[in-house]
Amino acid sequence: MTATEATMTKQNNSKPQAPGGPVWDWAAGHGPVTGALSATTGAFAVATTSAATGMPPGWALAIGAAGAIGHTAAGIRLKNAGRTIAARAASWLVGAGWTTWAVTNGPLSWPALGSLAAIGVGMATATRSTNLYEEAREEEALVAEERAVAAELSAERRAIAEEWVDRIKRVCGLTVRVLAVEHWPTGTGFTIDAELPGAATYDQIAARAAVLSSDAHLPHGCTATATPGIHQGRTLIDVSTVNALEAESTYPADYAPLSVLTGIPWGYRSNAEQILTYLREQCALVVGPTGSGKTNMVHVILAGFARATDVLTFVIDLNAGSAGLSWVLPALQHQPAEGERRVRPGIDWLAGSVDEAHTMLDAVLRIGHQRKISYQALMAREDTDLLPIGPTIPQIMLVIDEGAEILTSNDKPLKKLAAKILEVIRMLRAMGIRTVLTALGSTGSVLGNLMIRREAKVRVALTGGEKEGMDLGKLFPGSRGLKVDQAPYKGAGFMGTPESPAALFKTWRILPSQIREIVTATSERHPILDAVSAKAAGEDYARRWDADRIAWMGNPQPAGPAPGTAGEEPRRGLNLSALRDDRAADATSGAGSEVDRLADQFMREIDEQFGTTTEPTRGEPRPERERSQRPGLNLSALRDEGDDSPQPGPVAGRDGGPDWLPDAIAAIAAAGAAGMKPSAVADHVGRSRQAVREVLKAAAERGELVYRDNGPHSVYVHPDHA
C-alpha cells in the first residue's frame, strides 16, 4: 500500500459515524492490519479449499510468484523505495510458500495455524514500516522542491538586498543589514526589512527618499519610502516599481455592508492595497485645490458612509448643497411602483444654507448632550467610556464641505457657525459624533486651529500636481520626503492615519451612475436614529424633509429669460412680485406647487415606511406660522399710476423718518446678508453720516432694520436677510 492510500484510509476512518452504527467504505484501501488480515485469511481459504479438492500445490506457488512480479513492476513505476518493493514481493512469496506447504501437509494443524499467524504479524509490521518510510520520502521530496524554489527566489532577493545596501550606504551614509525582501502580491514592487546601525533612525532614510528613487532609476510616480519597522532599530522600505496611481480606477462595484468599527475604504496605496479609515474616535481633514478631485473624494467618503450599517451622515455645504444633492435627488425623483418601497436618501440630512446649518448643528449638540445623560447606564453595563455604536445607536458623521474655511472666516454669521462646529469636535467624541472637514489647501490659516490639528488625525492632501498652498510639512508633521510632484494625477496625493503613516495614495473615480446605484442598493441598510437622539433633536430633525425646507432642491436650474426679453439688459434691483409679469408669476407658482406636492408625497411615504418623524398633525393641513407684522416698503411700484399726491409714510420730522429712508432701506435690502455700513448709506442718499446714523438707529429700534455690531465693520441688514 502506498502512502497516499494510507492517508486516504486515515481520512476515511476519521469520518463521523452514522447514528445507526459504523458505515463500511468498501472502496477504501487496506491499512497495515486489514491488509495482513486479508492476506492471511485468503491464504488459509485457498489452502483449505485446495486440500479438500486435491489441487496441485504448485499452483499456489506460481500464483504467488506472479503477484510478487506484478507488485515489483508497479513499485518501480511508482518510484517506490527498494525496501518497499522488497517487502511487498516477500509478502507474496511467503504467503504462496505457506499455502503450498499447507496444501501438502494440511492447513488445520496447530503448526500451520501458528505459522500463518506469525506471517500475518510480520506482514503488518513490514507494511507499517514501509508506509512510514514512503511518507517520509514524500515529505522530503516536497521540502527539497520548496528548498529549490526558495533558493531561486533567495538568489533574486540577495541581489536586491545587496543592491539596496550599497545604495543606502552611498546616498544616506548608513550601512544597514537587510533581514528580508518581500515582493508585493500585486507585482508592483517590494518591501525591504532592514536593521539600522547604531543610533541611526529611519527618518534619515526617509528624508532621502527622492534621491534614492532617482538613484534606483524608478519610473515617474514610483518612490522608495522608509517607514518605522517592528521596533525603533529597524525600518521598512517600500519600493514601488510600477506606477499604480497613473491609471484611473472606478469605485469598486461591490457595495457590501461596512461598519465604522471595522474601517471605511477611502482609496488605495501605490501597492494597490486599500486604505481603511477608522473614524469611531477620529475626525478627518481633506484638503485639495480646485481641480484636484476633492469633490470626487467627498463622494467616495459619502459612499462609504452610505454602505455602513451603523452611520448616519449629515452634510453641510453652503455652496447650494452641491456635495449632498447627488445623494438626495435620486430618492426625491424616484417613483416607486406598486408594492415597491420608497428609496431613502443616501445621506440623512442636508444643509445648503447658513440658517439650516445652524439648525442642524443645534440639533447635533442636543443629541450629543442627551446621549451623555441617557446612556450612562448602558456604558456602565458595557464597562466602557465610549458609547457602544451599532445599528441601534448609529454614529453621526458630520461632513462639512470647505468646513476648514468656515472655521477661519472673519464673517460674523460664519463665526457663530464655526463655534458650534468646534464644540461638536471638542465635546462629542465619546458620544459617537465625528466630523469630516474639507479645505482648499493646507495653509497656516487652515491648520492654525489647534482643535483641527489635534482631532483630525486622518488627513488627506489631494495635490493633483498643484504646489500653491500645499504645505505637506504642516499637514503631515514628522513625515519627510513628501513632494507634490510625486502625485501629479487627479485624485492622487498623500494620506496618513494613526494606523498608516503618510504616503502616496489615490482615490477611486466614482461615477454619477454609481452614486444612484449606491443610493438604491443601500436604501434599506441605513439605520434609524435612536429614540433618545430623535427626541433630543426634536422637530428640527423630524421635519428635515418638509416641503418648505427642501423646496430649493427641486428647482436647481435658474429660470430662463421671459418671452420677448431676449437680448435686453437685465434690470437690476430687488426681485419684487409687484414688478413681475402675471404669467411668469403664475408659472413660478405652478412650479413651486409641483415641488411642494412631490416633497409632501415623499415625506408621507418616508413617515409611513421608516417612522423618522413624529409630526402630530400628519394627514392634516399644517397651520400657517404666525409672522410678526412690520411696516413694508413704500414702493413706487405699488402706487397707482398718475397719483401725484404725497403718499403716507415716513417724512422728515415724523416718527417714521425722513423721506430718503425708504430708498436707504431698499439699498440695504439689495445688499443682502452682507448689509451696508452707515457711511455707505450716507453716500448713497447724499446725507451726512451723523444724520444717517441717527435715522438708521431709530429704524432699527422700530424693527425696520437689524443692526449687526462688529466694531468698525458694523453694518445694517434688512430683516429678510438677518
Provide the descriptors you would attach to this structure in a database record.
alpha/beta; Rossmann fold; 4 domains; 4-stranded antiparallel beta sheet; elongated; disordered N terminus
Quick description:
This protein has 722 residues and is of the alpha/beta class. It has 23 helices and 16 strands.
Task: Describe what you observe in this structure.
This protein has helices at residues 3-13, 32-53, 58-77, 82-105, 110-172, 203-206, 209-215, 294-307, 322-332, 354-374, 376-382, 403-407, 412-427, 444-447, 450-455, 472-475, 512-521, 531-542, 547-550, 582-610, 661-670, 678-685, 689-702, and strands spanning 177-183, 189-195, 224-228, 234-240, 264-269, 274-277, 284-287, 311-316, 349-351, 395-400, 433-439, 458-462, 492-496, 503-506, 706-708, 715-717. The chain has 722 residues and is α/β, with parallel strands linked by helices. The chain folds into four domains: 3-12 and 27-146; 174-240, no CATH class; 264-548, P-loop containing nucleotide triphosphate hydrolases (Rossmann fold, 3-Layer(aba) Sandwich); 649-721, Orthogonal Bundle (Arc Repressor Mutant, subunit A), CATH 1.10.10. The strands form three sheets. A ten-stranded mixed sheet has the order 6-5-14-13-12-7-11-10-8-9, with helices on both faces. Strands 1-2-4-3 form a four-stranded antiparallel sheet. Strands 15-16 form a two-stranded antiparallel sheet. Helix 9 (322-332) links the parallel strand 8 and strand 9 (349-351). The radius of gyration is 42 Å and the shape is elongated. The N and C termini lie far apart (95 Å). The model is unreliable at 1-21, 556-593, 613-631 and 635-654 (pLDDT under 50).
